[in-house]
Amino acid sequence: MIVAGVDDGYFPPSYKEVKGSRTVLAAVSFRGHLPLRAVLEPVTVDGRDGTEACVKALERLGELDYVMLDSVIVAGFNVIDPWEVNELLDVPVIVFFRHPLNLKRIWAALEKHFSDAEERYSVIEKAFLSSHPLPSPWGVKHVLPAGTDLASAADVVRYYQTTSPIPLPIYAADAVASGVTKTGPLLRVLNRPS
What is the pTM of this model? Predict the structure, then answer.
């Protein structure tokens, strides 16, 4: 079984004030519990390219049996549509929610700052409301299966919850994305004026 985790990198709060600022998505693949590959793909802070960046990163990893996303919100309020990723790659997508989403608060923020708030919110709301509670040794988490059944998604999540409530592929993607962006040089290169 080859499974990829996807997560976004860090960016300073000031990036939300500059249109077109970018951070990265990291996608890390595992065969069982052994890491295979890691790739980075630029993604726009508060942009609309989350799904596209996710698909590009995953295509570069090669053959996959499952994809795991850490929520559907990345790079501020950019959004990854798990159903579109599933359709474009023909690979089951499992969305893992570390915490329940406060949909009222998310809607208020989107409505205040984005002219396309309804489009962004519709994916976020549908994803969270379609998710299912999944008991674990670390408490109940929520999981959304797209392109697979809940039992299979639950098996994959539990298989990777070896030492943490966060499944290993997502944990690794978070570590890579955060590691390469918190030091600064990569963000300066990505955001160099053209």
Answer: 0.92
